[in-house]
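[job 4417] fold queue: 2 targets
>>> target A
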Amino acid sequence: MVVGSCVAALLATSGGTAYAVDNLPPKQPLVQDLQSEGKACATGDDMPYVPEPPRLSAMLYDPEEDNQPSEGSPVKGEFEAWWTDSAGVEERRTYTTITLTSGSRQYWTMPDDIPANTVVSWHVRANDGEATSAWSDEGDGSVCTFVYDDASPEKATISSPEYPEPEDVFWVDGVGVYGHFTVDSPSEDVVSYTYGFLGGPYGTVSAERPGAAVTIPYLPLTAGPKWLTIRAIDRSGRSSGQSQYDFNVQSGRAPVARWKLDDPAGSRSASAVTGTVARAGTGVTFGGPAPAGTGSTATVSLDGSGHGFLTTDAPAVDSRRTFAVNAWVRPAETGRNMTVASQDTDGKPGFSLGLRSQDTGSVWSFAIAGARVSGGAPETGEWAHLLGLYDAETRRAKLYVNGHEVGTAAEATPAGTAGAFQIGRSRGATGYRDRWHGDIGDVQVHDRVVVPDEVAGLARRKPTLLGHWSMDGVVDGASPEQSGGVPLRLGTGASVYRGSDSSCIPDLDPDCTYVPPPLVGDGHLRLDGETGFAASDGPIVDTGDSFTLGVVVRLADSEPVRPMTVLSQAGEHTDAFKVRYVPSTFTWQLVMPERDEAGAPETVVSQIEGADGGEGQGHSLAVVYDDGTDTIKLYLDGYTNAGATASLPDGWHSTGALQIGRAKAGDGWGEYLRGDVDEVQAYSGALRDRDVLGLGWDTNPCLC
């Protein structure tokens, strides 16, 4: 019996189960599933531009209810595109894809004859072989459009008021001074520019509107010849040819104000290298001690009273613009707020650099216009280098302690009229406050960015060689120090080995016996592993301050049976440090107890290395303790890593002698080294990574 006029439902049976096989039309393609050369379907101002005849695509779906469980849902796409040609005639193109499974992305690569710089519209519908969907632009849908752009943009022009090209001004000021490079292309469809400065940075900057020029800021970090390369990018992604702009950057200009504070004892004012003389209150004492290795010869001591200050009675810098202020400081206390340097502004400090006391402990601080950056850990009686920087280009304030940035940069917007520059105090609502108690040296003020390498240079304390023992000979039972300093006394079981002066080659002369050369130079120290050692008559390095020790060592055995120490320096109850080989873990270890107590907790870092077995050139080991950054590092053959670096906030002062080849064990000695030792070097101060690289191999590092 036929029911109504509609198409009858056909029933098929398989295993006794019936399935409906009515066909439902495919789904209308959704606008969000359509793309022109990978760009989203759009029209009007959002219409995509493409650099070549595009590949159009659509996700097409056919309802699953059409099919039995074992079947797919095949569907194909019918694309149609149209445009109006230069004669005003509408042109159309169509394309039908192959049949694919429902949910697949279907593609049509447009023909090469589509016109350039013409709006092309398109839509798509799905066809399952029996029915078609609605077009994608019907109902709530939308037509898709694009423009094929067949021309690349013209090359960009570049100019800079701060950094003109060499034919205009050859050398231009300079490191730490921002340049602004204006970039423009004659092409009106350029939307962005890719750029790259020599050595970086590199990036892309967008124009506010198509065809608009852009300005790229650049901060030179080093001096020398520079260049900027630019490519213009249009709406279709086409790139112009490369433009290059050459310019030359001078070294960073000198401070606008500087007081070395090394005036003779009894002075009542501080002379200025640049800037204005600073008069001193009666609580200021000239002729104080200077931080070693800095080039400073003296500092001033401020007593923390109302008379302990220096002032120029005039501004040193416009604090609304980029500036930096820095100084060497040594606090006599850390339990209260204290100011190193500040500048008055409308009855308050426009900025202040100093120490701030808080519940969690004291920190160094740089404050400007209500913003504050804090970090680091001040220690009573310990020198530190502080630098506060305000960058008006980025409107951010930064703080550096001992050459390293600390805390989190803070946004600031300074305002107000610059007043008098102050050393040792800052302006408050009712007068000056937060007076400095301690020493201050070499205060500098810059009117530019002081870049990180310059900050590190200002904060650097040049290491001093304390001793270099080449182990080439023995005089009166001791190995002399190269410059006539403290010798290393040799104990029983220690001897200096020197190779043969002949050129004996056993393969050519069967009667000769080959004598291997020393490790480095003319000789090395040989230790028997039982009683052999060498030692100074007292401490060589101050383990409570920054120091560096280097040594070349070769183990005699390929499978040592116990730990052996190559370097140590003891306190009263334990070693302040020791460098030893631990065969169970195949590592060189640096061990530093936290205090001078037997069994005290230890900081241990290590580097993996197999034992030498008496062969080869041995290994260079170095220990570098940087008290300014509270880090201790162990170097192996000139290199360190994260596993060989640790934090050591409080190194303690040892009183014992430097030991070569043994370590403290209870009331006696142990961990005697069996092997060869050469080129022992000791420095006050922390050597840089590049200085350590050649340490020990018959060289002295450049400490410039």
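>>> target B
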Amino acid sequence: MRWLVGWSSIAAHFGTAGAVGGLDDLDGDLDGDGRTVHPVGAQLLWGDPDPLWAVGDWRPDEVRVVTAEPAARAVPGGANPPAITRLAVLGCCAASDEQLRIGLLAARGGALRHLTAWAGSYTVVVQAGRRITVVGDLAGARPVFYTPWAGGTAYATAALPLADLIEAQLDIGHLAALLACPETPEALRDSTPYAGVKRIPPGHALILREGSREITGYEPVASLAVAGPQVDPAQAVDGVRDALVEAVRARLTAPRHAPETLPPDPGPVPGMGPAERRAARGAPAPGIGADLSGGSASSTLALLAAGLPGVPGTVLGHGTGAGERLLAVTFNDLVTSGREAREPELERARTIAANPRLHHVVVAAGEESLPYAGLDSGPLTDEPAPSLVTAERHRSRLAAGSADHFTGAGARQVLDAHPARLADLLMDRRRRHLLRPVTALARADGASPQSLFVPLTVYRAARRLARTPYRAGIEAAADRLLSANRTGAVGLNGAVGASLAALNWARPGPAARWLTGEALAEVSVRLMEAATRPTSVQRPGEARARAALTRHAADQRILEQAAEIRSQRLHAPFLDNQVVRASRALPESLRVQPGARASVLRAVLAGAGIHDLPPGWGATTHASHTATAAARTGLRAALPHLMALFDAPLLADAGLVEARVVRKALRAASEGEPVPLDGLADLVATELWLRRLLSRRGTCWTGTAAPRRRAVAGGVPKRRTLQA
């Protein structure tokens, strides 16, 4: 896990003035009592009075620091030393050094949005005198956390190090909200699983001035009353094309890297080639790779990465020079039923892989790659997320990939239309644009007598949402948590039921049905308080779409930590700032049309000179059905272990669930009953994360004043106080 950490305090010197470089150059940072403390294994980017470190296995080209010429400021009675102005960018950033200097000057004048316009995925920290600015991203894949400490504020891109720093306890209320309303920012607020550690919202920046802090947004917020200017659809699609091509090119033009330490090759193994033996050892291949599932998102990235010019070879001389081929990885589940439904996607992947610029590798997954497999061997992540139960499944796929691996994560959330956007169209009096989406929705679950009434039912739900004020919608969600019906639309399942449930300002998550009344009451109080607070008014569809993107980006971040393979970098260009910003400019009337994502990505490929696509490319995939079947199969195989996990769960000690109820739900799901598997994955992942956290020893800090206890040293509280 890689992260950066620093702080701003009233104190002028901590003892690191002039120290730049590795940990050997570090004299120590004071905690306010004259005692040293600094992160373990850190690289000091700049020292006192407001130090900043990069922690983890950062590549040399992923950490860049630019300094502007200092300007002296005269003051009465003497002269101040020159004010230092510098910028640190961590991650994959395509900006040149000159562009970084221009951005530094712009940020010094307050133009923070300029710092998020470069291609790539990165975090920016700006120091202008004693003012520190930390800029988060738009999607939430690179969040920023902060906490009061030593008379000032400490910040980091991971919450666990800050929890270690202040020896925080668990925030049970946040865990309850994460299980009850995972896609509702009003319930989660700015909290984290650690009491006292806060996060800034996506699209915001944290500004620190000698210990004081301010959170400000750098993106314009759409008005609820007046629709924004309509962008020409063709121009909007061209913007997405340019942004996505630049995002892929940013990775291709970066220096190539090979694994630092390759395990010894055991030699020839019957039935295994060099690539298979390397994947079995858990080391990525040198160079560039990409997922190739046969879907439109992964295919687009694979074809762009194979066709765009990049830097051949690696810094260590690996690769095949100008003829280097992109490693395309296809995951083939051999255990889960429903292979007939997946066969068209696999055939499209094989057709695309016939490109001479691609080297195709098919990962044959067995029972060891099912969901809920390998739960005892995973690492501790920053936060809980449903991806913890599928980490082993993803790790088997990524082990066959390259040192730099593209993934299509986030394409659906960025390009597709959230069902709540139908209400935005009604607010703009564009009813005719609802005809095609509601007709396609009526056909999604097959022909039935109920399908005749689906268009009218969806239209009524969209009109109700369009006429519901923000406060009334949040209060209704709070009341729904305390009612008996927390499962969405009554009598409707499948795509129609999910769409109707999404046509609300907020809705309970799939795990809410198993939480205790006390936990739901606490989340309901959070929602009621949020409804009474002033907030920036957004249109309901846009607000729900941004919340869904934030949730997916957070899960993708935890997945990268849970399935991490040393020396490998996962790249999700769809979550980059410039791609998210360009996608938000797509007109809603274009988004809601069936097949909109495929048409946009087809235009992206056409703009890059790629026209020959296999038949059926962009068709509706069966990924959700495949994931459901795999989850049920994996749950059935891991049922004894899961039953033991919830024999005396920590979630029950915290008062969030009753162990008997969860065991009953697990048994019912394994027997094929219609139980929401996503909710069970949330419960299992949270319980698993709690056990890993409480079994952890040590902290992220060292020094004479370093915390000697791990975070949440007091364990899970047995009783919780309901805050009214």
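[job 4417] complete. Note on B: The first strand starts at residue 3 and ends at 8.
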